[in-house]
Amino acid sequence: MNTKVMRTIYSCLLASLLLFLFAQPIHASEPIWTMEQGLTIKALSISEDGELVAVGTQNASAILLQRDGTQRFEFMANNVVTGVALLNDGRMLVSSDDRHLYMLSADGKELWKRDFKKMIKNLSATPDGKLTIVTLHNESLVHVLDEQGQTLGEIPIGIAVKSAAVSPNGQWLAAGAANQYAYLFNPAGELQFQTPLEGDILHASVADNGTMVVGTSSNKAVLYSAEGSRLGELLTKDKVTSVHVTHDGEFIAVADYSGNYYVANQGGELLWSTKEAGAGQQIRFSKDGTRLFAGSDKGAVFQYEVGAVLEQGKQAAMVKTVVQVAAVIVFVLLTALLFFWLWRKKPYILHRLWKSKLAYAMLLPSFTLLIIFLYIPAFSGLIHSLYDWNPGARSEFIGLDNFRRMANDPYVTKGVGNLLILIVTGLFKALIPPLIVAELIYHLRSKRSQYVFRTFFVISMVIPSVGMLLVWQDMYDPNIGLVNQLLRMIGLGSLSHPWLGDPNTALWAIIMMGFPFVGILQLLVMYSGLIAIPEEVIEAARIDGAKPFRIIRAIHLPLLAGQFKLLIVLALIGIIQDFGSILIVTGGGPADSTYVPALQMYFAATKFNDLGYASALGVSMFAIIMVITVINMKFIKTNTD
User: Fold this and answer.
1) Average pLDDT over residues 369-392
2) Cβ distance 56 to 44 under 8 Å?
3) What global pTM score does this model have?
4) CA-based angle 207:211:212, to the nearest 5?
């Protein structure tokens, strides 16, 4: 391999390493320009060479700045400026809540204006000025205008338009509506595709190739290709206020309400971020993507040099592709070598595999699904438990910090105590009541009676578990609940209690749900074990004078050891992993009286978006289940062990 190729590989690897491990957020030391009044930057536009910045403000001014912040001119509208668009020849379009669209000359003189009779809420134009689009307050139309502001056509959306943008080449039009749908229109003005999104659509942008990015109130920016396929998404720390995509559609910039600014690649992978004072309001790339400009609600305009970041992103993407291809090649080679070795050294193994090829082929889909949906996520959780992992943001390796954090987490320590109580009571409920009922059914003289009672118990399986939980929740109601009503009926009204609302009784109230605790699976397992006991053994014991309780103690229980082992393992796994009943009935409250570690894992992942910590909790629970299972398998022996 020649020196030039080696240098290229080393530079790509170095760029990837810098990008994923050492790329820290970059902060601008000072804004390039700040309004004296400190009001919100409502609109932003950058010249194609990145040397001029147009700013629309809340105090009805449209200002043209040089890149260093020097002001060229200021134009005053009669209301808030809602949009600005710099054209290649220096002219500038300005839209305002005063219902007018203005065209300004390069020195800020008004060339023409058009009265739309309604407040203009969105403005977007191609750099050559030949195509402009505007949307009006509470209107469902996108107005398409020519260079003189005259209407070329109208695109009906069908519901109020919240954001609209035209691509720099004028070929694509993106729109977001009040129905939480995003729309992309092709060069012929026809609807290319529409897609629903989670949350309100707050801003949209579209590239020359039809790549569309949409920012929503659900704290994410979502990317779509021109064909409508979802390319990726970037999770933000607050609702998205502005998005922009480079001309080639390779990179996006995002601003959120907490003042965070992000740059990501087309797949939504974060490349760079920074945070400034105030809420982020506007964000724009220069044409080549090397410069990024942002505006805040404090009236500040910031500039960032991000060309190196984008270059690192391109190199990292190339490295990722090379690594993926290399991994596939290595896997194929290793597989081929394995089969060659088996063919040379162990030919009988290949013969047996080929002989049973149909069985293996039928098992392959199941194992494939297991690997994709169980084993890969499990290994991913193990790896990410060592990271401060927030999808959409940069992950940072923190070693065992997540596990140390668990030791100091009061919710986890309280949850462990509650979990121990649930394990003890849960094992009792999983083993004793089903065993008693199974013995009662087994000792019925009539086979028909056994069938009838067994069927009655099994029929209860059709009741949804969530429905059962809600019924018990109503039964515990302090005012109209069945439990308190029964206490009052038998003269024990003084014992009436808000069972789920008292930290001292809430956990025990949850434990008592499901009384008399006859689990159908457990019952069937016990019953199947009983009927599998040879009748000759029972008859021999009876001939020797053994009574029913003696038979149960000396014969049934020892021969049911395998069933006990199975049910103990299943019960432990279910108890440690389960949080659904607590989430539905109490949500972990009152206070933390019903908290369990699995519930803390759920909240960490869904409510706090702290997936690294959630992964650590999951790994810890897996380790506990594994240890208990090994102990159970080791010390509970059956006649087949």
Assistant:
1) 84
2) yes
3) 0.56
4) 90
Tokens standing for residue 527:
């019953």
Angle at 319 between CA 318 and CA 320, to 5 degrees: 90
Domains of the chain are 31-305 (2.130.10.10), 415-592 (1.10.3720.10)
Three-class DSSP labels, 195-259:
EECCCCEEEEEECCCCCEEEEECCCEEEEECCCCCEEEEEECCCCEEEEEECCCCCEEEEEECCC
Radius of gyration of the chain from its Cα atoms, rounded to whole angstroms: 34
Beta strand residue intervals within 37-196, DSSP E: 41-46, 52-57, 61-66, 71-76, 81-86, 92-96, 100-104, 110-115, 120-125, 132-136, 141-145, 151-156, 161-166, 173-177, 181-185, 191-196
636: number of Cβ within 10 Å: 15
Could you read off the pLDDT of 431-467 as tens digits, one per residue?
Answer: 999 999 999 999 888 888 888 988 888 888 888 888 8
pLDDT tens readout for residues 502-555: 999 999 999 999 888 898 999 999 999 999 999 889 889 888 888 889 999 999
- Rounded Cα distance between 332 and 609, Å, is 38
Q: What is the largest CA-CA distance in the chain?
A: 115
Q: Which two tokens stand for residue 479?
A: 């005012």
* Helices and strands (H, E) in the chain, number of each type: 19, 30
